[in-house]
Specification:
heterotrimer, A mainly alpha (about 290), B mainly alpha (about 280), C alpha/beta (about 425), A: about 290 residues, mainly alpha, MetI-like fold, 2 domains, flat, B: about 280 residues, two-stranded antiparallel sheet, about 75% helix, disordered N terminus
Chain lengths: ~290, ~280, ~425
């Protein structure tokens, strides 16, 4: 009886969400898919002609597409991994520290609130070999300041650093909230059995935290794939295309070259890439919740 | 052995946190400092020196550029979107974790799509939809558009929290005669408060900082603060002063909000709720 | 659960309050970029409104977002009557704009004689004007005249290079002056443009034009390209090490701080260079014709056009005429406008007050335009990519030269598919 009633009332719960989804998401995504498959460009009028996979073929034959794709993947994986480590460490540290003042915690997450454009510009200034603080650091140690943004290799790591600075609080908040929501009963039991902090973390906390970690990683992956403004403002995608991530590639196609077809196709491909990454994470999450649910 | 280890950790962790704090704050300090400097002093001595203080940048923002109405718009849109997203998200997350059906998988996938699509690709079709309902260039239109992006975020964040609510609590409530809705609002919501707070903060932030949607879906009658500020970044160079001043102003509400919400994030309501193993 | 209904109040109330309260007055909607002059123009709007009894809704947004906004606006039916279009996008949007020759007869003065011919050429697609230039930019040469006029410097230069120190008239002289003033860490000879963007293409085209390249007529061979790159390398040596990732922000900042002796830049920066709040080199800049025997300046412009299916065609056309008129331009120049009007650029009173006007005019005469074609941006992208990769040391000179050669050939074809710009003659 509980079962039957619960299913019916649940439908009401998801109704508002579904309405939003259909109108504001499903429909635009469909439109995007149509654009990816039709010939018309963004500024011409007329009925779009079906072009099949032409745009996808155009994309796939461009070497810059593949480099954007691989850059985006490396960027996403690197930033997510590094940020996860930092966020987890700090969350655990703060979890065991009882008396950290509120202001400190809020200040730690402050970078997350900064406008991406402003963040990108600030880091561009920081990296400036003439006036930037980084150059002062070099000078202090007696080295000639280098220009990270002018070097194809270092430019990539420069943008990775910016992303880490800004986004680890994002992961931190989710993980920290998840940590706080963990029931203390298991911890107490383990402590009474004589476990030290390290064992506590490894055998009790981390497994219980797995669904939260999965969500955090999933969200971060999705955000990373969409990163645009900060990178564009720091490097313009260069030097060459060493920092042209897939999102920059898409925007360039759409708004610089005004090729809406390939842009939509690239978006769809980005979607597929992200979905495969996220699907893997959902599997992890499902397994974790099945294992640790109760 | 345990006591010794626990005594060492606080100092070590304090040091790490202190260094991290310094690194995190440093760029923000640069931004704040630049907001108060004259263009000439930036030219003469860069961003790190003392002197050249002025309030002219703020004056420029509020008097010349009239940032205040834009800020108000941003605030309304962000609040509206935050409330709507979290409400729908909480409901959706709750349902998804309690439902046993294949529809769930499809819904999850659709939610994923929303998060993954670059806003650029979403913007134009969304504009068409909004135009149909005469909602383009309105605050409500932007609220809906932002919710389209934020509500999946909220759902995703809230799912593990909803999942972690012990079924025992729900069953106890229903045995006491509560309906599903009452169980949700009186039992589930308080327990998932940390998650709700984080989701609300994120939704507010995404909405508050949004630039692309405000540009494409509005821009005439309804302007938001990030849109205005972006004007200071031109292909011809950046006007650091007003830009940093604007960035500082934009930081304030989010800072205040997170400060206020902080205590809700700390609460652990499961303590004492469940007795025994 | 229905307690949640309260959350719907806010959006519904807002929706109702923004409801369709249409005012019955006539409105002219203008989409424009935002800069100093647009702010000044806004103040002058009431004058136009009164004269033509129509309200003007002047939406000025960041310049880099105008094309995006225009694209989305047009794709959904078009709500604006007047659009400003940056030169690169004119071919893209010209089908939506009403040709100037088709503007209502009531807009009597069809005289387009006051404008710089190159600016007008930019506004032409297939021979017909699609709008009028609201500003004019040309890539030109500036130098620190206080340094070049310094007697001791003149003496030393004469001794070292065996000729007089004067503004560079050839690329060789450019390099000599750059080498002479290469005095790290406080003074450098030249400020390059090296950050991945359209600006790099402009710098590259300027460089190659000096070696004989002209889009649409001559392509140059790989050997000449290599020579050009080597020349640029020698210029780079007179610039700071950091200059390998320089964009307008960094270059103009360096020049404004007094650290650079010469550079090629756009005239839209000059107003700030002579502003004592924004520059430490006020009054110290000399403006001259770009060095080189070929045309080496590159011209750019923003035009204002009337939407084809606008309901206020006459008012829109009047607005554009008014905006680009001599009177309005003259009033806006002191506010920082880089005008495209040749008559004003040569007007004696103004040129005394704003010394860069006459050299802008000279440079305009010698300038050439980038080929405006739908494929332009992607070709330009290829050029800047190859160039920046070489500057970053990721490619060898010969690799870059051949890549550039291929891309330039493509750009040539775009230009010769001159159907985009004017009728073949």
């Amino acid at each position: 009886m509980f079962f039957a009633r619960s299913q019916r009332s649940l439908i009401i719960f998801i109704l508002p969400g579904c309405a939003l989804l259909t109108l504001l998401i499903a429909w635009p995504v469909l439109q995007s898919a149509v654009a990816a498959l039709s010939l018309s460009s963004g500024t011409e009028e007329g009925v779009p002609q079906f072009a099949g996979l032409t745009h996808f073929r155009t994309l796939v034959t461009q070497s810059s597409f593949w480099s954007s794709l691989s850059l985006a993947t490396v960027f996403t994986l690197t930033t997510t991994a590094l940020e996860l480590v930092i966020a987890l460490t700090v969350a655990l540290l703060l979890y065991f520290q009882r008396k950290l003042p509120r202001i400190v915690e809020v200040l730690l997450i402050l970078p997350m609130f900064v406008l991406p454009v402003v963040s990108g510009l600030t880091f561009r200034y920081i990296y400036d070999p003439n006036d930037g603080p980084l150059s002062s650091l070099f000078n202090a140690f007696g080295y000639e300041p280098m220009s990270p943004l002018a070097d194809s290799f270092w430019a990539f790591w420069a943008i990775v650093l910016q992303d880490i600075w800004r986004m680890w609080p994002f992961l931190f908040l989710i993980i920290y909230a998840g940590l706080k929501a963990l029931p203390k009963s298991a911890h107490e039991a383990a402590k009474m059995d004589g476990a030290n902090t390290r064992e506590l973390i490894r055998y009790i906390i981390l497994p219980a935290l797995r669904p939260t970690l999965a969500v955090a990683m999933g969200l971060k992956v999705m955000e990373s794939l969409k990163v645009f403004a900060e990178v564009y403002v720091m490097t313009g995608g260069g030097p060459g295309d060493s920092t042209t991530l897939l999102s920059l590639f898409v925007v360039k196609q759409a708004f610089h070259f005004f090729q809406v077809g390939p842009a939509s196709a690239a978006s769809i491909l980005l979607l597929i890439l992200g979905m495969s990454l996220a699907w893997g994470i959902t599997r992890l999450q499902n397994r974790a919740s099945l294992a640790g649910g109760n | 052995m345990t006591t010794l280890a626990q005594n060492k950790i606080p100092l070590f962790s304090k040091a790490i946190i202190a260094i991290l704090l310094a690194l995190q704050i440093a760029p923000v300090a640069i931004i704040i400092q630049t907001a108060f400097k004259t263009p000439r002093s930036l030219l003469e001595s860069g961003m790190f020196t003392w002197g050249g203080w002025t309030l002219a940048n703020f004056h420029r923002l509020f008097v010349e550029q009239s940032l205040a109405p834009d800020l108000l718009n941003s605030l309304l849109i962000a609040c509206g979107s935050m409330i709507l997203s979290v409400a729908c998200g909480a409901l959706m997350a709750f349902a998804l974790t309690r439902w046993q059906s294949n529809v769930k998988k499809h819904l999850l996938t659709t939610l994923l799509i929303a998060r993954l699509l670059p806003p650029v690709a979403l913007a134009l079709p969304l504009f068409l939809v909004l135009k149909e309902f005469m909602l383009h260039d309105t605050i409500s239109g932007l609220i809906l558009a932002h919710t389209a992006l934020n509500f999946p975020l909220a759902t995703w964040i809230l799912m593990p929290f909803m999942d972690a609510v012990p079924r025992v609590l729900e069953e106890a409530a229903s045995l006491d005669g509560a309906s599903r809705a009452q169980t949700f609002s009186h039992v589930v919501l308080p327990v998932t408060k940390p998650g709700i707070v984080v989701a609300a903060l994120f939704c507010f932030l995404m909405s508050w900082n949004d630039f692309l949607f405000s540009l494409i879906l509005a821009g005439s009658q309804v302007k938001t603060a990030p849109l205005t500020l972006n004007g200071y970044v031109t292909g011809f160079g950046t006007e650091w002063g007003p830009l940093c001043a604007g960035a500082c102003i934009l930081l304030l509400p989010v800072f205040a909000l997170s400060f206020k919400l902080h205590q809700h994030m700390i609460a652990s309501p499961t303590q004492g709720g469940v007795k025994g193993a | 659960m229905w307690r949640n209904w309260k959350i719907f109040i806010a959006p519904i109330a807002t929706l109702l309050s923004f409801g369709c309260i249409e005012k019955p007055e006539r409105v002219l909607r203008v989409l424009s970029f935002r800069d100093r002059q647009s702010a000044a123009l806004r103040i002058a709007l009431p004058q136009f409104e009164k004269q033509h009894s129509i309200r003007v809704q002047f939406d000025d947004i960041p310049a880099s977002t105008v094309a995006t906004k225009m694209m989305t606006d047009l794709a959904t039916g078009g709500t604006y009557d007047v659009y400003t279009v940056d030169e690169p996008f004119i071919p893209q949007f010209h089908t939506s704009l009403l040709g100037v020759e088709e503007w209502p007869l009531a807009v009597a003065d069809k005289n387009t004689g006051g404008f710089e011919s190159k600016a007008l050429e930019a506004a032409r697609v297939r021979g017909s004007l699609v709008g009028l230039p609201v500003n004019g930019n040309v890539y030109q040469y500036i130098f620190r005249k206080d340094l070049l006029n310094e007697p001791e410097e003149k003496m030393n230069f004469q001794k070292r290079f065996n000729r007089a120190l004067q503004p560079a008239r050839s690329f060789l002289e450019l390099r000599e002056i750059a080498q002479f003033f290469h005095r790290p860490p406080n003074l450098y000879g030249f400020a390059p443009f090296t950050k991945m963007s359209e600006g790099t293409t402009v710098e590259l085209l300027w460089l190659l034009a000096g070696f004989g390249y002209k889009p649409g007529s001559t392509n140059i061979d790989i050997a000449t390209i290599s020579e050009a790159l080597e020349f640029y390398e020698s210029l780079l040596k007179t610039a700071p090490k950091s200059a390998r990732a320089w964009h307008h922000t960094e270059r103009m900042s360096a020049y404004a701080k007094g650290r650079v002796a010469q550079m090629m830049t756009w005239n839209s920066f000059f107003f700030d260079l002579e502003d004592e709040h924004k520059s430490l080199v006020v009054g110290k800049t000399g403006y001259a014709l770009s060095p080189g025997t070929q045309s080496t300046g590159i011209a750019g412009t923003w035009i204002a056009g009337v939407r084809k299916n606008s309901l206020e065609v006459e008012a829109a056309a009047n607005f554009v005429r008014w905006w680009t008129s001599r009177e309005v331009n003259e009033a806006l120049i002191p506010k920082g406008l880089s005008t495209a009007r040749a008559d004003l650029l040569q007007q004696s009173q103004l040129t005394v007050q704003f010394p860069w006007l006459s050299s802008t005019h000279l440079n305009f005469e010698k300038a050439f335009l980038r080929p405006r074609h739908k494929q332009y941006r992607s070709t330009s992208d290829e050029l800047s990519k190859a160039f920046t990769r070489w500057i970053a040391g990721q490619e060898t000179l010969s690799e870059t030269a051949s890549e550039l050669h291929a891309a330039l050939g493509r750009m040539n074809e775009l230009a010769m598919d001159g159907s985009q710009r004017k009728e073949a003659h």
